[in-house]
Amino acid sequence: MQAAAEKPARGWFVRLWRAFVEAALVPILAIITAVIGGGIIIWVVGGNPFAAYLGLLQGAFGSTRAWSETFVWATPYIFAGLAVALAFKGGLFNIGAEGQLAFGALAAAWVGYALPNLLGVQLPGYIHLPLAILAGMLVGALWGAIPGALKAYAGGHEVINTIMMNYIALNLTSFLLNGPMKDKNPLNVIARTPEIAESARLLPIFANLRIHWGFPLALLTAFLVWYLLWKTTLGFEIRTAGSNPDAAKYAGINFKRILVLTMALSGLLAGLAGAVEVTGLNYRQELGFSIGYGFDAIAIALLGKTHPLGVVLSAILFAGMRNGATRMQFLTQIPVDIISVIQALILLFVAADAIVRKIYRIKAREDRLVLTRGWGG
Amino acid sequence: MDWRRFSFIGIIIILLFGVVVLIGGEQISPLIIISSMLATTLSVATPLTLGALSGIFCERAGVVNIGIEGMMLAAAFFGWLASIYMNSIFEYSPAISLTIGVLAAILTGGLFALLHAWLSITFKVDQIIGGTVINILAIGVTGFLNRQLFFDKGSIFGGNVPHAPGLLPTLSKALTVLCSGAQGCGGLPSLIAGTIFDQKPVAISAILLVIVANYVLFNTRWGLRTRAVGEHPKAADTVGIDVRRVRYINVVIGGMLAGLAGAYFTIESVPSFEPLMTNGRGFIALAAMIFGNWTPFGAWAAALVFGASQALQINLQFFRESIPPAWAFLQQSYVVGLAPYILTMLILTGVIGKTTPPAADGQPYEK
């Protein structure tokens, strides 16, 4: 940092690049270390790590179709990762992205398949689609605001409450998809909703590829979250409440209101993930589709250092791994679950950056991310 | 634990039992229903009790552990795996294989806890993040090995997932063998059979461990040191207590308790492993710990409430037909299944009074 201060003449691009490298160095080394660790595990169970990783890369980025599929995977990851990252910025740990996502998807699906029949009119696409997505956002926001309010006004810790809300969402989704919202088609035996109307669908960008307009929407949302956090008063209040609650209170920030609002915004983004997945890809909600997104989103937010740009990059990386894993399993018979192990290792090395710094002998910086606090709240 | 908490717990348990007695009372004598509910409650509360004890040891020493869920899951898997291999490859008798399985589960819990201790004490990682890493790692490792070992190569579905060589026996069955016959030892086994005392080993040890933990924490030198380290590490350090060592040992003890809880799932309750089978029990256990104000008996009482709400779900299935139409929602197992989770949130809101965590809970110690 000192060197930069002495030579201000450098161009903005060079400075930006340096800032990026400095921020991304540890995450990148963490990824490399985790990949090596995963390779050792593959080797121990009798596989060929090089063949496995080659299959993974081919499956993730080896063709136009592979890229398209990776971006399809990345779309909900970006939204959900942003949800967790935004909560972290406000000093809150939202483990509930999974439940918020499931409920957002459910709401969007309901608007998509039931609303036109209920109203008795054909809704035009420019009304129906935004309505479906909006419903997902609102329900997600509500599902996120509940643990936020419980924390602000009753002192219940958000970590346990968001997890409980996940299980409640899972149970209620199972109930709804097996009962009131189940596809009544006599041929259907699966716990899922009917297909949503054509007018409630996000279109594919290209013919023959599954990548849909949800992906650009995710990138736009990442920009908006960045803008909100660093260019608006509300964002400043969220970040202050997160990094220094006492200062926030002295500065006259309504701490409790910000807390609820942060959780609501976080839930909104997670709900958006579900809504986009339903309107852009699945065209319905099916039981069990949301399982695992919550923990993946946490890993993505942490790997991206809770910065929107970092979240987008880590989301694409995780999406590539999930997408490529199927081909890896097909080619080398290494189970797709190895990806979860590698992700846990990445998270381990990102969280314990001291390990990575020790391995690669990098000097420590002092600006540690303050993420969460104890039960006292 | 003050009287308000205990009476709240009493009221909830009476309410939950009352629902089943009201619905099933016409078919079966209420006494039988209550004793069956009690037995189920004691049994299903086991992982919650052990998980809460695990949390108490960690947090009394000042280390927050939200990785209990993952430790249980990993222990459930490796305990189960050990019992299968001991039986099928080394051809030990089922009894010995199961015992080794339990020990393997405890060891697994201890090893995962060692990782947590290493992260949070040595590297001073944010402890909630560290616990999340443990949870994700446990899901990944168990899912990967389960598929790698037992599924047909390359297939997504299907596979030949084996069962553990039997289940741990109930007290009466074990005594029958030990006393050579149900009438041995003065007829003790036949006396116990079918009563609420007829529990299985992990469930029984959970109750004993509540008493032991209470004694250790509040009546021994080690317990005093543990609490000192969790309340005021600097003061403890000044009088010559090795803060890091005390924390390390307590976290590992906690992990071993979580490991024993893991054994409940695959060796005592059902003989098979399923991915994600712990289903949030580790987190509910933390809520029990908080509600019990970080004391073993308080946490046990809270665990019994959750156990009772699960017992409600299990026992209601027998009386599905006689549920009155006005209570039709009780027929939906998904809806009744919400009870423990909603109870957890309710309890955490502090409606029944605030609880106080150890003062240095969650803070890494810097000399």
Short description:
Chain A has 377 residues and is mainly α. Chain A is built from 16 helices and no strands.
What does this molecule look like?
- In chain A, 54% of the residues are buried.
- Chain A is 72% helix and 0% strand.
- Chain A folds into two domains: 69 residues; 276 residues, ABC transporter involved in vitamin B12 uptake, BtuC, CATH 1.10.3470.
- Chain A is an all-alpha fold and 377 residues long.
- Chain B has a single domain, classed as ABC transporter involved in vitamin B12 uptake, BtuC (Orthogonal Bundle), CATH 1.10.3470.
- Chain B starts with a helix and ends in a 19-residue tail after the last helix.
- In chain B, helix 4 runs parallel beside helix 6.
- By secondary structure, chain B is an all-alpha fold.
- Chain B is built from 16 helices and no strands.
- The chains are: A mainly alpha (377), B mainly alpha (367).
Average pLDDT figure of chain A: 89
Number of helices of chain B: 16
Q: Report mean pLDDT of chain B, rounded to a whole number.
A: 88
How would a textbook summarize the main sheet of chain A? Answer: none
Strand content of chain A: under 5%
Number of strands of chain B: 0
User: Which topology of chain B does CATH recognise?
Assistant: ABC transporter involved in vitamin B12 uptake, BtuC
Termini Cα gap of chain A: 34 Å
Return the CATH architecture of the largest domain in chain A. Orthogonal Bundle
What is the CATH architecture term of chain B?
Answer: Orthogonal Bundle
